[in-house]
Amino acid sequence: MEIIIKNSPEEASVLAARVIAKLVREKPNAVLGLATGSTPVRLYQELIRMHKEDGLSFREVRCFNLDEYVALPETHEQSYHYFMQQQLFAHIDVQAKNTLVPDGMAKDIPAHCADFEEQIKACGGIDIQVLGIGSDGHIAFNEPSSSFASRTRIKTLTEQTIEDNARFFEGDETQVPTHCITMGIGTIMEAKMNILLAFGEGKAEAIRETCEGPVSAMVPASILQHHQVAKIFLDDGASSKLKLKDYYEWVYKGKPEWQQDQ
Ligand code: GLP
Q1: Which domain CATH number covers 76?
Q2: Which of 71, 76, 138, 227 is the most exposed place for a label (fewest CB within 10 A)?
Q3: Domain count of the chain?
Q4: 257 occurs within a structural domain
């Protein structure tokens, strides 16, 4: 795990965007795994800026999203389809046929999930997977106790996640869907690189457990300790409970310049 701590979410997001941009420049048909939630919004804004101002093209890039609510139509403002259109896809030159968000309205959910996995394989696997983290340590919608071997499937949200996400549904928990389709932890672990972003003190405990706690299905993100290339981008708040915070900062300061966007 590489733990990168910046003063602000903006600075951390810009750095993460540079890692993605470097890949896309080197491999124009890169395969990106994308996340929703409030955390990656600044990262997407920086990618949009790079597209508009620096000519970064996503024309051949293929995108797979981590998750989607079940039974929420694409047109619903809180669907992850809608989010991705608003926050990224509509502002870059990615082709619609190359953006795949799980279909929460699929009639045959298991068949849809199997097909989703097949499509990732057919593209040669995900090069960089972007992740946020839930306050209970979940990644995508893999809630505590999810199997580390899990694949794309239907899941039930925890009450904690429903409570956390109610802010997007006018604060009304009863409007939050109870089920979702999510990439599995096994799927996420097959990405060649994982980039997890976490900002604010509300994520500090989950980050402490993820980076410094035991690897446990109770904290799904902790499996990233076993990933070969996992970069954890944090701000001051999210890193505030890390025991080795000074060490991570020391390591980052000593990074040779050529390694900065790798
Ligand atoms: C949802 C998403 C996750 C995301 C999490 C955190 O549960 N399924 O992918 O990481 O929310 O959201 P936020 O970034 O808004 O804190």
Answers
A1: 3.40.50.1360
A2: 71
A3: 1
A4: no
